């Protein structure tokens, strides 16, 4: 047989093996899109400016990341949404990412138990109330469509709940992967916050980088960084503290990692965030044994004393800024102070709920009259700092109660599973049990329920909680004897 014929037969065999039924699905679903995308980008590089070509290449790389490494892709998605120069870009990235994740789960044939019935029922009820509120906003209240979009976009992010649950519950180490993603997000928020604080340049579109000003008892040199995502930082601080307590992380390493997170909280200068995070670190005392509780208190006391003493010697201005910020609360309460404006918000919201308690004013509706003094913040007629009143005004009191019921069922279901959780997941479960109360507390003065990034945090914590009271959703390892905890 000639050499040419041998090559021909070998090529035919290889080609035939390539197009077998087993390989056809992967060829169609992966390599064909890659080929078409590469061809499209190549043509764009010839026709379009380099900036647009680079953007297209980055978009294709982002899609590939979501498909190949979903957990890394989810972390990248949160970072993209955080850095988006406009919230419409973040929403577009959210929709695209959701569709890609659903497509990836379908092609990989991921099998996972359904969301726990108690959570599934209340989630569907909450979704029905949201749909009803949107319908009333359009056809009954006749709210402006741009306002409906700006107020209602946050509910889109709740669709991550079934997707993230399927991703987590379908993998034996899904809980560990989700925890790692949350930690990466927390440190990304800290890096962005500190970078803006040092440079004074705002790179995160949502938020503010500005001086605290003399109204808070500060000089103009003290810069405050306001941006979304600090709840991730609070969660990470509690998690690392418990890791040190349970000797999963070395004391010095854990202390250094916590100090980095505390720096992020410092540049935020949020009194409520500081107070509730500290409470969150103490809340595990109610769930752990007496010996560990004493050890936790002693660790916090020693670490706090050493930190304060070191700062007093090395950087006393930090302590001065913190004390002045905490003491500045005594200046609140006047008519034109932060607390005074929030009192006015709450009063107007209560009047609105007295008139329409069941449906509120609808998504995008205005609950109070225009104030000339707040003309620079044109959304003040729709905006509330109190999350509970914010949701009640938009969805009605039934909508608020349904959302709180979802939080409660997630927390209580996880609490019941605390005694049975395997040792490797105990720290994560304790962190979630401690996080929910502080999130509920912060939400009294911050609109966390209506913040898209906080909703992502709530979704992740609900998924983690659900992972501990659904049989078979966590790795099947025998629990240690009760005394080992």
Automatic annotation (TrEMBL):
Domain of life: Bacteria
Transmembrane annotation, as ranges: 28-52, 59-83, 89-107, 119-142, 181-205, 225-242, 249-267, 273-289, 296-314, 387-407, 427-444, 450-470
InterPro entries named among the record's database cross-references: O-antigen_ligase-rel_domated, WaaL-like
Predominant localisation class: membrane
Subcellular locations according to the entry: Membrane
UniProt domain O-antigen ligase-related: residue ranges: 257-404
Keyword line: Membrane, Transmembrane, Transmembrane helix
Topology of the protein relative to the lipid bilayer: Multi-pass membrane protein
Pfam annotation, one family: Wzy_C
Cellular component aspect of the GO annotation: membrane
Protein name, as recorded: O-antigen ligase-related domain-containing protein
Organism: Duganella aquatilis
């Amino acid at each position: 047989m000639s050499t040419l014929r041998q090559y021909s037969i070998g090529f035919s065999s290889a080609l035939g093996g390539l197009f077998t039924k087993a390989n056809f699905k992967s060829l169609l679903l992966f390599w064909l899109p890659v080929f078409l995308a590469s061809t499209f980008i190549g043509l764009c590089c010839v026709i379009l400016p380099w900036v647009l070509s680079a953007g297209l290449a980055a978009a294709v790389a982002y899609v590939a990341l979501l498909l190949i490494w979903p957990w890394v892709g989810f972390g990248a998605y949160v970072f993209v949404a955080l850095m988006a120069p406009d919230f419409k870009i973040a929403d577009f990235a959210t929709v695209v990412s959701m569709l890609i994740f659903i497509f990836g789960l379908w092609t990989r044939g991921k099998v996972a138990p359904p969301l726990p019935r108690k959570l599934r029922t209340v989630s569907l009820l909450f979704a029905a109330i949201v749909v009803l509120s949107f319908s009333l906003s359009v056809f009954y209240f006749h709210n402006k469509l741009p306002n409906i979009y700006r107020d209602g976009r946050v509910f889109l992010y709740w669709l991550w709940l079934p997707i993230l649950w399927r991703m987590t519950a379908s993998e034996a180490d899904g809980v560990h992967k989700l925890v790692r993603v949350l930690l990466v997000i927390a440190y990304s928020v800290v890096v962005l916050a500190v970078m803006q604080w040092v440079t004074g340049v705002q790179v995160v579109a949502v938020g503010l980088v500005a001086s605290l000003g003399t109204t808070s008892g500060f000089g103009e040199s003290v810069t405050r960084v306001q941006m979304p995502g600090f709840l991730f930082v609070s969660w990470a601080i509690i998690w690392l503290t418990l890791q040190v307590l349970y000797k999963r992380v070395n004391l010095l390493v854990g202390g250094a990692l916590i100090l980095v997170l505390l720096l992020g909280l410092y540049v935020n200068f949020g009194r409520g965030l500081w107070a509730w995070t500290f409470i969150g670190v103490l809340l595990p005392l109610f769930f752990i044994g007496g010996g560990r509780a004493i050890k936790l208190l002693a660790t916090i006391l020693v670490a706090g004393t050493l930190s304060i003493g070191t700062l007093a010697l090395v950087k006393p201005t930090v302590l001065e800024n913190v004390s002045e910020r905490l003491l500045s609360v005594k200046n609140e309460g006047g008519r034109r102070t932060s607390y005074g404006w929030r009192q006015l918000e709450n009063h107007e919201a209560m009047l609105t709920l007295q008139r329409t308690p069941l449906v509120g004013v609808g998504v995008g509706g205005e609950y109070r009259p225009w104030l000339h003094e707040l003309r620079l913040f044109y959304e003040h007629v729709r905006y509330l700092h109190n999350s509970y009143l914010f949701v009640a005004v938009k969805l009605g009191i039934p909508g608020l109660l349904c959302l709180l019921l979802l939080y409660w069922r997630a927390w209580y279901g996880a609490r019941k599973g605390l005694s049975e959780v395997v040792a490797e997941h105990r720290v994560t479960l304790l962190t979630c049990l401690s996080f929910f109360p502080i999130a509920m507390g912060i939400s009294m003065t911050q609109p966390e329920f209506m913040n898209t990034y906080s909703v992502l945090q709530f979704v992740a914590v609900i998924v983690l909680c659900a992972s501990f009271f659904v049989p078979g959703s966590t790795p099947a390892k025998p629990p240690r004897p009760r005394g080992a905890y």
